[in-house]
Amino acid sequence: MATRVRPSNKRCAVIGGSGFLGRHLVETLVDRGYSVSVFDIRQSYELPGLTFHLGDLCDEQALLPALKNASLVFHCASPAPASDDRELFERVNIQGTRTVIQACLEAGVQKLVLTSSASVVFEGKDIKNGQEDLPYAGKPIDYYTETKIEQEKLVLQACDREKDFLTVAIRPHGIFGPRDPQLVPILVDTARRGKMKFIIGDGTNLVDFTFVENVVHGHILAAENLRPNSPICGKPYHITNDEPVRFWDFMSEVLVALGYAAPRFHLPYILVYGLALLLWLLSMILRPVLSFKPTFTPMRVALAGTHHYYSCDRAKQDLGYKPVVSLKEGIQRTVQSYPHLRKGA
Ligand SMILES: NC(=O)C1=CN([C@@H]2O[C@H](COP(=O)(O)OP(=O)(O)OC[C@H]3O[C@@H](n4cnc5c(N)ncnc54)[C@H](O)[C@@H]3O)[C@@H](O)[C@H]2O)C=CC1
Ligand SMILES: CC(C)=CCC[C@@H](C)[C@H]1CC[C@H]2C3=C(CC[C@]12C)[C@@]1(C)CCC(=O)C[C@@H]1CC3
């Protein structure tokens, strides 16, 4: 009879480990003595002792070698929200996540931690101190959100104590930090093109921005607390900095620290949202003949002009979560890591 090697509980795999969050997670896991294998469609760095497996997560045969002997898998791969490619999101976030679950079951993985998103409940309307029991967005604003909802449902529903397969979802919001390819680069690009002069709405809307190391901390706590008798099985958890801040204050602080002017003039939210919707419709209609990606998408305008901050009381209670880096320190460390994005650089 073939003997099944019992996976070590310090052996894990990170799907999407070449990405912004994935790489920070991998580095922390290695520091904490985990043996890590990375699965991604690209390799963005090297680290001693780390095994890289290149492949598409939609391909189970490519995934299986990366999951071999791992008791724990983190799934933090997704196409970038800016791609706005419906087919790609459906293939990777929905079909691909089914494949990840199937591969985990086949490889004897015991725990799966998904990086979901707090945006799964966001429909463009204010959310103040939102709890995890808010319903999923009935009318998600973009395909990214639509497929993140389905992805989270798939992973949480797959939690099965009988099969010795436990799952949990982490819902971060507005991740920022060194090497982030999205937040600071988009902001600086917008400023360099002279488009960061306006505040959408009255500028008082509160939002969560979460330093990447806090998100990593939340993921590892979830993994280490995921046991058959624990209350966290099959549940989602908000992970934020627990310091909601005005969206426009945060943007201004980063801009000014990098040498750019803070936005000053106000535009009515409804007007900008309407324009963004029109532009988006136009880009859809013209897609067969002309491809252009508007900076001001309805989702971005909604994120910039509404309240969206979340309670992480559930994570504090069930996971013992507490942010490890304050917003102030997170902003300082982030700004210092982008010398090439300073004005004049
Ligand atoms: N950045 C943010 O503010 C937030 C991110 N999230 C979630 O966190 C996760 C990580 O996001 P980031 O690190 O910001 O993104 P990222 O784009 O830096 O990393 C995603 C990684 O997934 C990989 N990937 C994409 N498609 C793949 C495929 N078919 N097969 C294998 N690998 C594939 C990419 O190559 C990339 O390395 C995602 O699931 C995202 O939805 C959730 C909330 C906020
Ligand atoms: C809180 C949260 C979920 C942030 C996610 C990151 C991005 C969605 C934002 C990072 C930079 C932001 C930004 C805008 C929208 C949202 C971001 C892309 C604008 C395009 C909004 C309209 C403007 O006036 C310019 C902004 C540039 C930066």
Automatic annotation (TrEMBL):
Molecular-function annotations in GO: 3-beta-hydroxysteroid dehydrogenase [NAD(P)+]/C4-decarboxylase activity
Keyword Transmembrane annotated: yes
Protein name: Sterol-4-alpha-carboxylate 3-dehydrogenase, decarboxylating
Taxonomic lineage of the native organism: Eukaryota, Metazoa, Chordata, Craniata, Vertebrata
Chain segments annotated as transmembrane: 270-290
Complex and partners: Homodimer.
EC number: 1.1.1.170
Keyword Ribonucleoprotein carried by entry: no
